[in-house]
Write a structure and sequence with these properties.
By secondary structure, chain A is mainly beta. Chain A has helices at 35-44, 86-89, 168-171, 455-464; strands at 8-11, 14-18, 50-54, 60-63, 72-76, 80-85, 150-152, 160-162, 232-234, 242-244, 324-326, 334-336, 351-353, 412-414, 422-424, 427-429. In chain A, strand 9 (232-234) and strand 10 (242-244) form a beta hairpin. The chains are: A mainly beta, B mainly beta. Chains A and B meet through strand 15 and helix 4 of A and strand 1, strand 6, strand 12 and helix 2 of B.
């Protein structure tokens, strides 16, 4: 149950502009149900190479050109997705490349290809048609040559030569479990075609591309969004939900750009944690990774050589929120090891302050995360509530850390990071400073309407008890 | 929550990752703001796409059609002051307050909960077999002074932390509850006095439980929401 969209590669939020056709090559067709219908129509037409799909009006515009055609360019668009036939935009070939419609025009030996419409220097029997796609002097495979696309050459002594375009399988290899694989193979190891990630048929699934942006779940290409042992895809065969893809390994298991490992704390999601904590936060001992008891699982150490699944140490082989492990308690399958401290990503304090830092007059101008402070007199990226004129007492010079509002947690500043309005500074309390104790007797407390829960619900539940 | 009972806590929220899995608790302090623990997130600047807050249900795995369930994406994070372990989450839109969803009060700045005050923790975390993992569990705990707490902890408990009384039976927060509330009944209202943070062991019998003291950081909460 393949979708006609399987023949297309999408660029979300993109329009293809043509220098000579600002309004596009033809009218919009509004009577289509969805992008699949557009793909069906375009797929039937030999001179249709791509189409715009309007995500709001659900209309489509068939296009005779792609982003590699002359005088075209891609442009961001708030209303369109651009679908282009894979044969034209993929830089690798599937099988023997008879579908290849790319623009490579150089042979393996570096010779320029002869135009197919020319009979010199090499005469031949081929006539370019829409069907055989013998365009310009691009490499093509009109006779199904097992060595892939080829061309006649402009060198009199070399009649024709293969172009050496890589198969999609060879074009990209995988490190470790292939979570970073971004190649264009769209078939499984049994030869089944992959289902598109942005479709829920024939197999509904949870991996919506929009929710897993970091996994680049493009079109129907093999990917590994759930840290399986290899890249895989759902298949277009209703009887077979998902299968692995057959992809070459890049070699020895170390990943070239692997993050520095940590031992007694973890950074980010803890995927590089290599410490020896081996209980859960609940204090339950972890199960050994090489054991299937009490919990059967798929994270066999030999299948995840890069994840260091030694003994029963807390690890994060699947991109979860933190290091975790299977536990030795039958009733508790997995648990996070949140008791492992997070490595601080704070920078080293550069100065110190007394009390709440209201009198701090130093020139530190960096937040604890190392972000530069915004000038107090500036209005961007954050509108300052405290300015040198509105708070003269606070000595708000330049972008130095200050405490104009008596913040009990120390000097702060507005930051130059648009995502962080304010933050505390790379300062620490001076060693000889003792903050006043807060453990005085409580004073009278007045509250508004919060903090109440519906007594009727409470009663019902207590009955439940 | 270990040693708790199924219960009702309309300000307790469930943090969900993009697979929809519960991984931490939180407290609804404003219609669009939830307080939780920094430990729950890789950092204060992670891509938040797919992370959601679920409210208005008692079930760990509510059906999508469950009435009252509110699922709100998280739009922004604000990291708490140094040593606070606090994290404020701004939601993409305000939640709807109703019978099942309510705000919890914040204490005045530097307010110290009197010893003996009745409090409760709530969460969908690990019960260690003492309760029903599929619903929200609530457990009652009573506050003790830091002085008493430090007898057991040999002075390690800071003023920015607070403690509840040690019990003979294992009762307390556990994995999956972190970031959730220690709510105390004060002057006829429930007030968010503490936040559940990871400890080396869950619900350790005969040991006081330690929480972050919210009143020390309430000025930051107001400032972060205002700025």
């Amino acid at each position: 149950q393949r979708s006609p969209l399987n023949d297309f590669q999408v660029l979300r939020g993109t329009e293809l502009q043509h220098l000579l056709h600002t309004a596009g090559p033809g009218p919009w067709q509004e009577d289509v149900a969805d992008a699949e219908e557009c793909a069906r129509r375009c797929g039937l037409l030999l001179d249709c190479r791509a189409f715009h799909y309007n995500v709001s009006s659900h209309g489509c515009q068939l296009l005779p050109w792609t982003q590699d055609s002359p005088q075209t360019w891609l442009q961001r668009s708030g209303r369109c997705d651009l679908f282009q036939k894979k044969g034209y935009v993929r830089t690798c070939i599937m099988d023997n490349g008879v579908e290849y419609r790319g623009t490579v025009a150089i042979t393996m030996g570096g010779l320029t290809c002869q135009h197919w419409s020319h009979r010199v220097p090499n005469d031949h029997k081929y006539t370019p048609t829409l069907h055989n796609g013998l365009e310009e002097n691009f490499c093509r495979n009109p006779d199904g040559d097992p060595r892939g696309p080829w061309c006649y050459t402009t060198h009199p002594a070399v009649r024709f030569q293969s172009c050496g375009i890589k198969s999609c399988r060879e074009a990209a290899c995988i490190w470790c479990n292939g979570e970073d694989y971004r190649g264009s193979v769209d078939r499984t190891e049994s030869g089944r075609e992959c289902q598109r990630w942005d479709l829920q048929h024939p197999h509904p699934h949870p991996f919506e591309p929009g929710k897993f942006l970091d996994k680049d779940l493009d079109d129907n290409y093999c990917r590994n969004p759930d840290s399986s042992e290899r890249p895989w895809c759902y298949t277009t065969d209703p009887q077979v939900e998902r299968e692995f893809c057959d992809l070459p390994s890049c070699g020895p298991e170390a990943q070239p750009h692997q993050e520095a490992t940590t031992l007694n704390c973890f950074r980010g999601k803890g995927e590089s944690y290599r410490g020896t904590a081996n209980t859960t936060a609940a204090g339950v001992p972890c199960q050994r990774w090489d054991s299937q008891n009490p919990h059967k699982h798929r994270f066999a150490p030999e299948k995840y050589p890069c994840k260091d699944l030694r003994e029963n140490f807390c690890r994060n082989p699947d991109g979860s929120e933190a290091p975790w492990c299977f536990t030795t308690r039958p009733g508790m399958r997995v648990a996070f090891c949140y008791q492992i401290r997070r490595c601080t990503d704070n920078v080293r304090p550069e100065d110190c302050y007394y009390g709440t830092g209201e009198q701090y007059r130093g020139s530190v101008s960096k937040t604890r995360k190392g972000v530069s402070c915004q000038r107090w007199s500036a209005e961007t990226p954050h509108k300052s509530q405290f300015t040198p004129t509105s708070a003269p007492h606070a000595h708000l010079e330049e972008n130095f850390c200050r405490n104009p509002d008596g913040d009990s947690h120390g000097p702060w500043c507005y930051t130059t990071d648009p995502r962080t309005p304010f933050d505390y500074c790379a300062l620490r309390r001076c060693d000889d400073d003792q903050p006043p104790s807060i453990l005085e007797p409580p004073d009278q407390v007045l509250f508004e309407k919060c903090g109440k829960r519906d007594p009727r619900l409470d009663q019902r539940v207590s009955k439940l008890r | 929550v270990v040693g708790g009972q199924p219960g009702n806590s309309p300000w307790t929220v469930s943090l969900r990752n993009r697979q929809g899995q519960h991984f931490c608790g939180g407290s609804l302090v404003k219609e669009q703001w939830v307080l939780t623990a920094q430990q729950c997130f890789p950092s204060c600047h992670v891509p938040l796409l797919g992370y959601e807050v679920w409210l208005g249900t008692m079930f760990q795995s509510p059906k999508p059609t469950e009435p009252g369930l509110q699922r709100v994406p998280i739009a922004k994070m604000v990291c708490g002051p140094p040593d606070s372990q606090f994290l404020l989450l701004k939601l993409e839109r305000p939640v709807t307050l109703n019978q099942r969803v309510a705000l919890i009060c914040l204490p005045p700045e530097r307010y110290v909960v009197p010893p003996g005050t009745k409090c409760e923790i709530a969460g969908w975390g690990e019960t260690k077999g003492t309760g029903n993992n599929s619903v929200l569990n609530v457990a009652s705990l009573n506050v003790i002074s830091n002085q008493d707490c430090n007898v057991k902890y040999r002075g390690r408990v800071q003023e920015r932390e607070m403690c509840t009384k040690d019990l003979l039976a294992p009762v307390g927060a556990c994995e999956g509850d972190y970031g959730g509330p220690l709510a105390c009944f004060t002057h006829d209202c429930w007030v968010l006095e503490g936040m559940i943070i990871p400890a080396r062991v869950c619900a350790r019998p005969r040991w006081p439980a330690v929480f972050m003291r919210v009143s020390v950081f309430v000025d930051w909460i107001h400032k972060a929401i205002r700025l």
